[in-house]
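fyi for ur records
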Amino acid sequence: MKTFSLILSFMVLSIAALAQDVAPESGFWKDPFADPMFPLYLVIGFVFVTAILVILVALYMLQVLNMFIRKAAEERAEKLGITYAPEPGYWSKFWDWINGFRSKEEEKDLMLEHNYDGIRELDNHMPPWWKWLFYATIIWGIGYLIVYHVTDSLPLSDDEYAASVEKAAEQKAKLLAANPPAVIDEKTLSYVHDEEIIKKGRTIYVTNCASCHMPDGQGSIGPNLVDDYWLHGGSIQDIYAVIKNGVQEKGMIPWGPVLSPEQIRDVSFYIKSIKGTNPANPKAPQGELYVEEEPVPADTVKAAGS
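which gave:
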């Protein structure tokens, strides 16, 4: 009973410790008594604990019963004047049967004739479990051949892959039809300080660009993005083109295959918006000074055309 008490105490403490480790801040563990599923959980827990107790008591009673049987057999052997030899248990019998073990009395019939410096060998066969596993693989192979190559009842891996690709293409087409992407003309693209676009661009920048240009754009492996000097032009069209096509010789990968045109525009706008900020440790300027072109007044255009 002492062992049983220790096991039960260990289970209760383990469940309590586990509950404390995984308890989230909200939901059932925040107020379990107010949760509508609490009565169901309580009943399930009661049934579970009861089942464990029944199993433990049954095991304990089985041990007591075996002890009485063994004691009776020992007393009977003592009265008959013979040495008591306990009967092997069910598990021991099963283990010997599944492995094909032979008794020491049978070894003389299994001994082979050859002798190597006094070392002899028993003619043991393969364990039954190994042969059954081998036969099962043969049956499985025949079934696989019939199902996949004779009757074509189930698709092969290539067919499953093709079906998955076709299904994904259909879903993509439906998604694009429901949410058509914005059309971005990079040649006529002009920067507008749109807070919503800049916010989305910052998210893309922090995820994909900050490792080379730092989160504040001060530059690291990549160039400084907040000063007036640019390696490949500082207009919004230039920034868009560099992000889209990359600069292979500088280690800048093309993001065109990864980001949508709308996402490239967003991150381009964000980069444009951080120009002139003062990060803590800006990288030295690189490239050429870029001066933003002033927009041409409408009256000037009319006068030049007249």
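The beta strands are 229-230, 288-289. thats all i got for now
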